[in-house]
Amino acid sequence: MTLKDRPEVRYALWQAYQRKCAICYKDFFNYSDLQIDHIIAESKGRDSKEFQEILKKYNLPSDIDLNSLENLRPSLGKCNKLLRVAE
Ligand SMILES: [Zn+2]
User: Fold this and answer.
1) Which residue from 40, 41, 20, 39 is spatially nearest to 29, judged by alpha carbons?
2) Mean pLDDT (whole number) for 43-50
3) What is the pTM of this model?
4) What is the whole-number distance in angstroms between the Cα of residue 84 and the centre of ligand 1?
5) Helix (H, G, I), strand (E, B) or coil at 71
């Protein structure tokens, strides 16, 4: 099970962000609406120019684990879906 699928991680992120969506800042009314989103999408290839530029921009280590807590944030399912379409 990856970190983002663990119930205690979901709950901790929900609390850490004051029970708000990290994308639109709306309050969650239902815990069941909570989806855990990768801040840097896993879909970007690690060797891609875009990925390397993100690392540089935010001064991140090249061996960053995209499934680590630092790369996870809570979001509403609909916000998460909108972002995926935009990618
Ligand atoms: Zn949202």
Assistant:
1) 20
2) 83
3) 0.79
4) 13
5) helix
